[in-house]
Amino acid sequence: MVCEGDEAAATPELVGAGVGIGLMPAVARRVLGEEGPVGWLRLDAPDCHRTLTLVWRRDAYLSPAALDFRRLAGERLMPDAS
For FRET with 44, which of 22, 29, 58, 82 sits at 20 to 30 Å CA-CA? Predict the structure, then answer.
């Protein structure tokens, strides 16, 4: 059985309740901490990856902060993109 969700905090709660095991991005561990009854194991394999996508409406207003974030994400995460 597989369950996929968008609420990162729910996975350790479900695992802690004995429902099973979970896969989470490393950033979730940093944000959620290591409190509670769950154990963490780092998986590091060449074919193990996560794709993140930044999306915005072309015709919508973007605040200066959003524009800076978009620029920074492009420079740091996709330096070879055009």
Answer: 82
What's the whole-number mean pLDDT along residues 72-77? 85
Answer yes or no: is 22 within a domain: yes
Q: Please give the structure tokens belonging to residue 22.
A: 């979970």
pLDDT in tens, 24-74: 877 777 777 777 778 888 888 888 777 778 889 989 999 999 999 999 988
Do 24 and 13 meet the contact criterion of CB atoms below 8 Å apart?
Answer: no
Q: Which amino acid is at 3?
A: C
- Report d(CA 14, CA 37) in Å as an integer: 11
